[in-house]
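tool_call: predict_structure(chain=1)
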Amino acid sequence: MITGRLTVFVGDVNAYLRAAARAHDPAAFLVSNANWQQFCDTDYQDVSIYTSLGDLAVDQFCSLLDRADAIEYCPPPDHKWSDRKIALALDPYDSIQGITEYLILRHLQTKPIGNLDSMQDANELLPLVDHRRTDEPQLWAVGCSITAGYGVSPDQTWHYQLAQDQQLECSVLAELGSSNPWQADQILRSPIKKHDVVVWASTGLHRQWIIKDGSMMHLNMHSHVEDPDLEQTWPLRALGSDTTAYAAMHCMKAVSNFCAGIGAKLMIFNANFSDAYITTLRHIPNFYYFQHPIHIDKRRQIRQHWIDLGTDHTHPGPLQHTAFAVFCSKILQDL
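tool_result:
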């Protein structure tokens, strides 16, 4: 029975663990399957022990952590574990490291755990792409490649012109091919404050982000042409489904609620062509419809187009960006 303090050093099957424990307490000893019952039957005052999942059965290992007053995590040098596996943050049961850290972290809120910084973390696959520019109210421009400025120079972008008009510093949350859910996530995690101005140039609704081979990837209707293997992990029918479209619109409502709660001005407009969904988009708070030019093609179908094209002959050009800036400026006057 332990009447004092029990400190448990946890790591892998290796002499380094003994050295780490005895550097803290020269009397520290190993608890394994061989001496488990003896350990349980012996009276101790303050005691330090060390163990691993290679030394002790899982149920005894868990019991020992439950009894501990403090847990010291001691991974092997360079995280070279005995099973030679790399821990996966999303699948902790696939390696000794993952299981060990999972069992330790179950006590995160109940007892002190040392060396937490040495535990593996899930990679940040969706980092914020820009930061706050000033403590004063500022502009946040959000969107896809249009907002990122593909095809035009930096001083021709709609957000540069709008920032000049509004006399505000500007942060740009935009990436090539990004979806509305990705853009909404950028807004919701950014340090936006009261009186800031958020202008979201929303994109096409049939886009999404996925994790593939450990990296984040933006999907749109061209992605499966560029990478046919995507059909196995994210079928084109899923990307083009009503579920994807409604998720893209639903996140706009989340952003609207967020901005209203903190007192930031919000304007969402359709920088990309989304007219087919205008009956639904018009019900989204803070959404403002930009009327793109249209023409009727040879099959008598309505097609939208840019006023002009940029240097890449794909994205909108300077005149279209100016039209966006003028449109946003007029809307912001009334917000």
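agent: The chain has two domains: 6-118, 139-332. Proceeding to next step.
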